[in-house]
Each structure stands twice: as C-alpha cells, then as structure tokens.
Amino acid sequence: MLNGPVIVTASFFYLALLFAVAWWGDKRADQGRSIISSPTIYALSMAVYTTTWTFYGSVGRAAVSGIGFLPIYLGPTLVMALSGFLLLKMIRIAKSNRITSIADFISSRYGKSHLLGGLVTVIAVVGIVPYIALQLKAVSGSVNLLLEYPDIVMPSRSTTLPVLSDMSFYIALILAAFTIVFGTRHLDATERHEGMVAAIALESVVKLVAFLAVGLFVTYGLYDSFADIFEHVADDEKLRRLTTAIPSGQDFTGWFSLTVLAGLAILFLPRQFQVAVVENVNESHLKRATWLFPLYMLLINLFVLPIAFGGLLHFNGQGIDADTFVLTLPMAERQEGLALLVFIGGLSAATGMVIVETIALSTMVCNDLIMPILLRLRGLALAEAKDLTRLLLGIRRGAIVAILLLGYLYFRLAGNAYALVSIGLISFSAVAQFAPAMIGGMYWRGGTRGGALAGLSAGFLVWGYTLLLPSFAKSGWLVADFLTQGPFGFSLLRPQQLLGLTGLDEISHCLFWEFFVNIGAYVAVSMVRPPTAAEASQATLFVDALKHTRPVGAAMWRGRAKISDLQALVGRFLGPQRAESAFAYAQNLGGVAADELEADAELVHFAESLLAGAIGSASARVLVASVAKEEPLSLSEVMDILDESSQLRSYSQELERKSRELEDATRDLKAANVRLQELDRVKDDIMSSVTHELRTPLTSIRAFSEILRDDPKMHLADRERFLGLVVSETERLTRLINQTLDLAKIESGKADWHATEVDLKDLIEQSLAATSQLFRERGARIALDLPDGLPFILSDRDRLIQVMLNLLSNAVKFLPAGSGLVRVSLRAGANGLEVSVADNGPGIRAQDQQIIFEKFRQVGDSMTDKPTGTGLGLPISRRIIEHFVGACGSIALREKAPPFIFTCLTCRPLY
Amino acid sequence: MSKKVLIADDEPNIVISLEFLLRREGFEVLVAVDGEEALAKARAERPDLVLLDVMMPKMNGLMSVRPCAPIPELASMRVLMLTAKGRETEVSKGLGLGADGYMTKPFSTKDLVAQVRVLLGG
Question: Which residues form the Response regulatory domain (chain B) (predicted)?
C-alpha cells in the first residue's frame, strides 16, 4: 500500500490539517479569543527546535558516536533553566520596543542602525539557508525511500534529475506557498501569527508521537526491552565502544562546544526567537516552558540509542545510512502504517522548521535589508505613496519564495556533500555570532554600534573561513589543498588549524576562533569611544528592561510633529484604517484632543513603535524623522533625562511603597472599625434588651400604683390583687437585676466559687423538690432515672442547683397543659456524669439551639409564644457549667425524636 | 354609645392594669395577647382605637399595624402605639406604618387616658 499516491495523499491531508488548524487559530485571534494563550502551546511551539536534523539525524549521530548526540539537548535545557533571566528579558525588551526579529533587536539596541540590521540579516540568511536545504533533503530523501518499498534502497549520491522533474523543487514551492498563506496573511504591527503557532504546536505533538512510536516498536517489538538491546550491543565487538561515555576520537571539548552551540541556538536561531519571543502571548507562559520544553526533548531523545543500536544490529553491513534508521527499520519489518507515521513525523519536523524560519527570515529581509534600501532610493518616491501595505506584503512573500529557492539551490549544489548533522552545526555556529552583541547589549551599557558591527563582521568572516569554506572544499568546489596546505600554501592559515591551533574538532575550532574575534572586536571597538546619545538611550531601554514599569522612550524625543503627518505616515505602512483606529485609541488614552494639531512626544513615540512593528525600528526612526522637525539631543541631555527618569523611578517606587503601606493601614483600620461597629451593635442590642426588660415590669408597677393612688375607694379585693401584682413585678425586677449582676460577675471572673463534694443525685432531688409546686400547677409529671452509687463530683453546689432550677423551670414553661412530662436522668457518660432534662414540649429548632444561650435571646421572640423570664437563665447556666470545664464539661444540646433532650451537663467524677 | 378600645399586649399585668383603667373611664374594652388575635379582633369588633404593644408574639406589633390601613373598614380605627424600647427608630417606624400616636413604657396613666381621649376626638 505504500505507493506514490498514498504518500502524496497522506502528505496533503496532513498539510490540509495544519492549514485548518492555522486558519482556525487566526480566526479565533481575530475574534480576540486566542487559542494559543496557553503555556503548554507556547512550550510545544518552542519544540520547533527539533527539526528533521533531530528526527532523522540524532539516530545517525548516535550510530557513530553513542551518546554524542546528547549535547544538542543539554545546551537548550541548561539555557531554559536560566530563561527566567535571559529569555524573560528578551521578551520584555521585544514587547516594549515592538521588536519583531533578531535583526531588529540588535539594530534597535545599537541606536537603530540600518547597517547592523542588514548585517545580522545577511548572517542569518547565509547561516540558515543550508539548514533549510537540509529539511528539503530530508523530506525528499524520505519520500524516495518510501517509494522503493518494500525494497530498501539508499538514494543515489548524485543528483541528476532536471529541476522540473525533481520532487524537492516542488516540495520547496509547496512549502513556500504554505508559508506565504500562514505568515503573510496580513501585516501586523506586532508581527504575530497565532494560527501558525497553533499549527507548529500541533506539529510538535505529531513528531513526538511518531518518534515515540518507532522507539517503542524497536525497543519492545523488535527487542524485549532496553536491557535486551544493550545486551545485544555488548555482545558485538564493533558496537561496544558506542556505549562508553566518550567514544574514542572525541573529547570533552567537543561536548562542551556542542552544548554551548545548542544553548545559544535555542536563543538566537531566528525561528526560536520568533516562537519564544515574538509570538509570546504572555511572559508568564515562560514558567511552564522552563520544564515542559526540556521534558519534551527528553522524551524525543529517549529512544534515540535503542533505534540506533537496533538499526546497527539489524542492518549489519548492509550499507544502510544510519540517518534513515527511523524510517528503514519499520520498512524492513513491513510495518507500513508505522513507516507512513514516521514519514509524516519527519514531514512535520521539516515543515515546522521551514515555515517559522522563513517567516522570521522574510521579516528580517524585508525590514532590515530591502526597506532601508527602498527608502533611500528617492526615485521610487516611496514617501509619497498612499498605501504601502501591499508593497510590504509583496516583499515578504517574495523573500519567502527566494529563501526557499535558495535553500533548494543549496540542496542541489551541496546537499549530498555532507552528513545531515554537520549542516545543522554549521547553522548553529553562524547564529552563535549573535550572542556577544545580544547578551552584551542586554547587560552592558558600553556596547556601541561600531563594536557590534566589528564583532559580528569579524566573527562572520571567521565562521565563513573555518567552517563554510571547508565545507565547500569537502564538497569538491575548492581544491582540497586549501584544507590541508592552507591558502597559497600558508600553513598557518589552514582553515581548520588556524594559526597552528590543532587538536580540536572543526566545530570547537570554529567556535573558539569566532568567539575570540567576535567578543574581542565587540569589546575593543566599543571601548574606543563612549556611546552616542542614541546608543545610550537605547542601552538604557535594553539593560534596564526588567526595571522599567513603563518605557522611557518618549522622554528621549524633542521636536515638533503634526498629528496628521504622523497618521498619514503610519497609514502608508499599516493601512489607513488601522492607522486611524490606532491613533484614535492612543489619543483617547493620552487624553489628547483629536483636533489638536501638534503631536506630543508620547504620540510620536507611539507612532514610531507602530511603524517599528511593521518595518523595523531603524526604518521607523528614519521615517518619523522625515515628517517631524526634530531637535537632536546631545549626550549630556540624554544622560540628564535618564538620570531624571531614574530619579523619577525611585520616587515612584517610594510612592508606591508608601501607598501600599497606606492601603495596608486603611485595611487594618477598616477591619478594626467593623469589629468596633459589631461590638457597638451588640452593646446596643443588650442595652435595648435590658431597657425593655426593665421597662416592662416598671410599666405595670407604675400603672397599678397610679390606679391605687387615684382611687382610694377601690374594692378591697381589687386593691389586694393589684398590690400583689406590684409586689410580684418588683420581685421580677429584683431577679432581673440580680441575674444581670450575677452574669456580669461571672463574665468578668469576679464570681465566688465554692467547690465542694457534690452528690449529684441528692442535688437533683433537692432541685425537684424546690420546683414541685411549678409542676403541680401545670399538671405535669416527672419521670426520674437516678441510679444509686454514682461517684461524687467536685463542684459548687449552689451554682449547680441554680442550673438545675433553671433547666427545670424552662422545661415546665413549655409543657403542654395537663399532659406534660419531664424526664430527668443521671448517668455515667464518657466524660463524666451526665444530667439530662428532657421534656415533651415543642422542642428547640436546630437553628435556635445556640441562640438560646445568648443573653436576652428568647427563641420564638415574635413568631410564636413570647416566653416569660429574663432571658438570662440559660446564659448564666452555661457560664456556670463552662466554669467547670475540665472538671465539668459544657452544656450541649442533643436532638432526639420528641421528647427532646433539652440539656445535658457532664461532670467528671471524683475518683 | 361608649367607644370600643382594643388592648393588644402580651404582658398580662399590663393588660390587667390597662383594662381596669379604661373600663373605669367608661370605654368598652377588648383584649388580645398577640398580633394575630389583635388583627382578628380588630376586624371582628371594629374597635375605635387599639392600644398596640410594638413587641408582641405571633406577628410583631408593628406588623399588625400595617394591615389596618388597606382594610377599608379599619380605616377609621386609631392606633396608639406602646413601646418599651423607646428608641427613635422604633417610634418613627411605627408612625410611618400608620400609628396615630405613641407612648413609651412606663407611662403615666393620666397621660395615657388623655391621649386616648384626644385620639377618639374628646
């Protein structure tokens, strides 16, 4: 089933799926509902790092050097561990300065220099084109392999096909079309492509799944386990050397170089800069990427050795290229489905890399190479054109096609000359050139444009001389003598033993020299003169990026500009409509009246950063300068402004701190006030209750007294009755006052307690005797359960009687007339003696069972019967019982089926 | 014909004293000990005036005032509010709900009688 049509159909289905995902992502982005605003998708998109070079090449490398493939992953993992500093700073800088590519980053840092941006672009293109060629080679190689199925035939070493019948050419064209649709759908001021990122994240999943599938197949299908494979390897004379840590012929220098290169690549490869910095939606996503991305790489590397060993054992001596083991192993085992999955995985590794890389490069080529040239050609009258967005898009699309065709060209010319892994490393070495200018620019204020130019050029030349030219020589385009004898026989200038430096592998050799000259030139030339005003102000923006709360860019501008001019300028590059809405928004935000003619520095800065997003910061600077009458700032003025802004910054930090303290204090005060108000309310309620309780008996007393006074001839019977009522109301008042005082005493801890041995049974019987009159009046019965022989307790006898009387009289109060029953029982409970007083009255609702212990809170206050009494009996009882906590326990309420057990007091017996 | 007065209070002793007082003044006296009973008696007996305790069980006194107003046959009934809390808010709440006057407990019996007479139009 693995024939041409199936492969082509599967490929197209896969690309269509990618396209659908990207289209969906863009649509959602337009609606403002981003699907890529997720730390997981961010981390997955960073896995665009793993290309076909990894997918196929890691196994090839492992087959030659054992675990020598590992540094390619160690470097990025180490760098990700530091991402909280370096990557975060890059993201912060790029966002606040609307930087959209690594060329723009460097150009912007060193005073918005066109020359520097252009140089970085050239280095990136020259360095990356071979890498793109590698992807084309891998895809066409895998297709050719599959087409021969079920035979396994290594592709021929010479490319003899004419261009028009060469599959790779069409692959390049399809990828170009794909990238154009993905990456240049419209011109965006932030140069972000949500749909593309979503598609890239999907591709990362696909290639991981494919690689894991092969790994599992080889490890557990062809062999039994990891251990099984390694046992086979140990039995094989030739393979055994691969299992040692550093196989012969290598040394730690090589490991170190590769680790450094790979670590720098994860930061400075244009595609990594694109996904990690430009496409970053939220810098907090970095946190998950810090561990998820290394985890991804760990997973995709898990089976590299088993596949390599499996392939070596399986194809022993058959001349099968180890780079193809991932694909040829499933083919040899007739696993058609798996082979197709691997092919799709490889395709995803290639397309992901090519799409992101060409988008990043096309932005650089357009903004930092072509636009600056076009802007200089006055003959084109670019400044007068109304809408340049179509031109910009056209340039980018052209750049994409050109880059891919260059890649194809390189593939045609050199593709078969070198193993896959070496091409990748050549590219890594090229972009490593950016490190001094980038890192220095972010942490050293002294770096200048001249220094960066010198460093980059020198490093680039060394790279070309020690790595690129030798690769040409190895491809047979230069005489081999160039390598072995040096140019014109100068042996000191032998490209891979420069100045007599021997004993290093070619990558370490190149790395040493390129960093030596790059850093040397960068630092030395930077030290020649102090930074200019433009450099110094940009240096501050970059070096202090993590300190600024808002950019100080606007403070660095002085001059006059018309709003209409600025808007027209932005409109030419972003389209008139978007310029209009952006300006309306900005003016709204800054409170500038729309009809105001003069733009303030903020608005000028805003316009410049809008333009910078579309055409790069250097071009934006030139263009804004062309419509504004600017007064150049001298270095001392810039320093003054910077000084002022740093003072302002410290003032504002101080202010922020003060206001935070104030907020804290306010919050505390508010809380205290709430507590006070609550206390006040409670006090108010109690006062109001006391007042009410006092006024009520006083009302009767006064009324009866006045009646008696006003009517001396009243009947004796009435007179006696009324006097009796006056007396009982006075008693009520006295009781209320006593209880209030009693409670106050207990609460303030001034009550007297007389602890003696108490026989609870005796105490209960005494209390019952005291209340027997009440029970008789209500016609209520009492059921007793008072066993003999329970231990005595230590407590205050009078107080306990007070409690019992209270509970008993409460129980009586609510009994149904005539059929009332109160059950009093005493038993030894878990914590001591338990006294329970239960009645067959209406009971207490669950939600009221706590309330009844609050002062003056009588349940059924208004909705049912108003209870008689002071409302202090139960609160006092509770206080008494609580006083004996430890010795006694506390009042608790238990709800049973009617009759309710009303109260239960527990005392610990004296043993 | 003597005027009819409804006493609505849950304190038995206060009811006894008020009942005696008003009978002596020549009024016909009805008694209710909670809000529900007060409203029922007011509707059935159509008293000319109700002495209403604002804190009563089964429907707060304040609440039993409110239904008076919308009932046409009770529209002419006067309400004298009795309160033991004596708080400004209670008083104004009661007056706002339709009471015609209020007395704070404990009150002078003379004042009470005078107030009742005023409300009943001499």
Answer: 4-120
Please name the amino acid found at residue B122: G
Burial A518-556 (b: 16+ CB within 10 A, else e): bbebbbebbeeeebbbbbbbbbbbbbbbeebeebbbbbb
Which residue in B20, B55, B60 is closest to A707 by CB distance? B20
Tokens of A150: 């079920």
A-B C-beta contacts closer than 8 Å: 84
Q: With a cut of 50, which residues of chain A have pLDDT below it?
A: 158, 248, 419-420, 860-867, 886-904, 906, 909-911
Identify all chain A residues contacting B21, using CB atoms and an 8 Å cutoff: 703, 707
Residue A698 in contact with partner chain B when CB distance is under 8 A:
yes
pLDDT at A59: 87
**pLDDT at position A869:** 62
Which DSSP string corresponds to A343-408? HHHHHHHHHHHHHHHHHHHHHHIIIIIIHHHHHH-GGG-GGG-S--HHHHHHHHHHHHHHHHHHHH
Note the pLDDT tens digit of each residue in A12-54. 899 889 888 888 888 888 777 777 788 899 999 999 988 888 8
Mutation for testing the A interface, residue in B13, B108, B115 having most A CBs under 10 Å: B13
Task: Please report the domains of chain B, with CATH numbers, ordered by start residue.
Answer: 4-119 (3.40.50.2300)
Q: Is B31 helix (H, G, I), strand (E, B) or coil?
A: strand
Q: A730: which chain B residues are within 8 Å (Cβ-Cβ)?
A: none
Write out pLDDT tens, residues A364-386: 998 888 888 887 776 556 556 66
Residue A886: φ, ψ to 5° = 95, -55
Q: Which domains does chain A have, with CATH numbers?
A: 4-26+35-432 (1.20.1730.10), 554-631 (no CATH), 663-747 (1.10.287.130), 753-907 (3.30.565.10)
Whether chain A has a CB inside 8 Å of the CB on B89: the answer is: no
Burial class for A202, CB neighbours closer than 10 Å (0-12, 13-18, 19+): buried
Q: How far is B104 from chain A (nearest CA, A)?
A: 9
A715 at the B interface (CB within 8 A)? no
A116 within 8 A of A449, measured Cβ to Cβ: yes
pLDDT of the residue at B5:
93
Determine the distance in angstroms separating the CA of B47 from the nearest CA of chain A, rounded to an integer: 23
Which of B24, B58, B106 minimises the CB distance to A863? Answer: B58
- A265: Cβ–Cβ under 8 A, 6 or more apart, which residues? A49, A75, A76, A272, A427, A428, A431, A432
Give one DSSP letter per residue of A748-790, joined into a string.
HT-----EEEE-HHHHHHHHHHHHHHHHHHHT-EEEEE--S-P
Q: Determine the residue type at A214.
A: V
To the nearest whole angstrom, how far is the Cα of A863 from the nearest Cα of chain B? 4
Residue A519: predicted pLDDT: 93
pLDDT at A457: 93
- The model carries a pTM of 0.61
State the DSSP code for A864.
S
Task: Name the residue with tokens 């733009």.
Answer: A599
Task: Check: CB of residue B92 under 8 Å from CB of residue B45.
Answer: no
